[in-house]
């Protein structure tokens, strides 16, 4: 599948720039917000690969519903990221149907359109405005950016991405839930960033003690190891049902760590099936949005000293979905 963005920039007089023309009555989605920078920051947080060219992706799913927009990206089925743009983030929000719909997008192209405004908003008395419109008939998402006397329209073709993997099901119970400052978790993960940058097979062991309410992260290889322990007083909240001992991809945790630079608080949960869920809150301009990550656990065989045996870690298998077109999705 391919993605296309047609961008036209028009300079208008201030009197003519009240906004784009009203949406057609058949628009499935029509909304307006002044929180362009927060949305750009949130969507950037779910680009799981650094320095990726816009046309190269990542591919994303966007669920449209009465409650707002949910963007999802993933790396295979072992790492998934979501952003929630709730309806109250928008000054105007109208969704035409009762059931949610799911569309595919090139998120790199969406971000490239939004970043047209980067670095300009501070010089204006009013923040830039974003008008979003989606018509099912044209299979095209239209972003209209209004900044001062400039109006920019980006039309982005939707894609056939199938369906994302199923993570975070409501039927899965949690083994523990820890809330701590994002800075604390970020600094702890930074201490584990040693060794060759291309060691994508590195594994992080995560342990939570039910009695002591501690979180311990450990990275080992054949030469040495590094361990970080967060004591109970580092947690704003700690609900621990049982001891937890799971392993995850070091590269996947690095992707989570990048978003922590913009977050204020992080909630870490480990589910009974071993899946790691990290949710963080990002604030800007009096509004907040949420980013969520799901990491599949790894099955790792360790020797008596805690080092991985030959053969390397293996991701636990997960189910996947695959369909085509614009999907009607049940709310969750």
Topology:
Blueprint: E1 5-11, E2 29-33, H1 36-44, E3 59-65, E4 68-75, E5 79-86, E6 92-95, E7 101-106, H2 107-114, E8 129-135, E9 140-147, E10 150-157, E11 174-181, H3 182-191, E12 203-209, E13 214-220, E14 225-230, E15 237-240, E16 244-249, H4 250-260, E17 265-271, E18 276-284, E19 287-295, E20 298-299, E21 314-315, E22 327-328
Antiparallel strand pairs: 1-10, 2-6, 2-8, 3-4, 3-7, 4-5, 5-19, 7-22, 8-9, 9-10, 11-15, 11-17, 12-13, 12-16, 13-14, 17-18, 18-19, 20-21
Helix pairs in contact: 3-4
Secondary structure class reads mainly beta
Anisotropy-based shape: elongated
Largest sheet: 10 strands, antiparallel
Number of strands: 22
Oligomer: single chain
User: What is the CATH topology classification name of the largest domain?
Assistant: Proliferating Cell Nuclear Antigen
CATH architecture of the largest domain: Box
List keywords for this structure.
Proliferating Cell Nuclear Antigen; Checkpoint protein; ten-stranded antiparallel beta sheet; six-stranded antiparallel beta sheet; single chain; 332 residues; DNA repair; 4 helices; mainly beta
């Amino acid at each position: 599948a391919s993605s296309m963005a047609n961008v036209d920039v028009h300079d208008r007089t201030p009197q003519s720039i009240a906004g784009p023309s009203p949406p057609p009555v058949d628009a499935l989605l029509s909304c307006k917000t002044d929180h362009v920078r927060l949305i750009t920051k949130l969507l950037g947080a779910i680009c799981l690969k650094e320095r990726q060219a816009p046309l190269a992706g990542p591919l994303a799913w966007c669920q449209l519903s009465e409650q707002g927009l949910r963007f999802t990206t993933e790396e295979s089925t072992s790492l998934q990221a979501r952003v929630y743009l709730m309806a109250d983030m928008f000054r105007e929000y109208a969704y035409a149907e009762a059931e949610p719909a799911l569309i595919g997008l090139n998120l790199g192209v969406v971000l490239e359109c939004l970043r047209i405004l980067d670095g300009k908003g501070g010089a204006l008395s009013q923040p830039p405005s974003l008008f979003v419109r989606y018509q099912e008939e044209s299979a095209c998402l239209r972003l209209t950016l209004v900044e001062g006397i400039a109006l920019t329209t980006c039309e982005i073709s939707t894609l056939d991405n199938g369906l994302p993997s199923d993570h975070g099901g409501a039927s899965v119970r949690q083994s523990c839930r820890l809330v701590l400052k994002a800075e604390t978790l970020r600094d702890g993960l930074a201490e584990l960033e040693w060794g060759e940058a291309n060691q994508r097979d590195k594994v992080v062991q995560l342990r939570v003690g039910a009695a002591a309410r501690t979180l311990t992260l450990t990275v080992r290889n054949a030469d040495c190891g590094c361990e970080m322990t967060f004591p109970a007083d580092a947690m704003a909240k700690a609900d621990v049902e049982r001891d937890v001992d799971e392993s995850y991809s070091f590269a996947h945790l690095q992707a989570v760590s990048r978003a922590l630079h913009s977050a204020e608080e992080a909630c870490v949960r480990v589910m009974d099936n071993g899946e790691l869920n990290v949710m963080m809150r990002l604030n800007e301009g009096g509004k907040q949005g949420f980013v969520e990550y799901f990491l599949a656990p790894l099955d790792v065989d360790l020797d008596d000293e805690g080092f991985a045996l030959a053969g390397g870690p293996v991701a636990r298998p997960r189910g996947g979905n695959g369909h085509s077109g614009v999907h009607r999705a049940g709310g969750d």
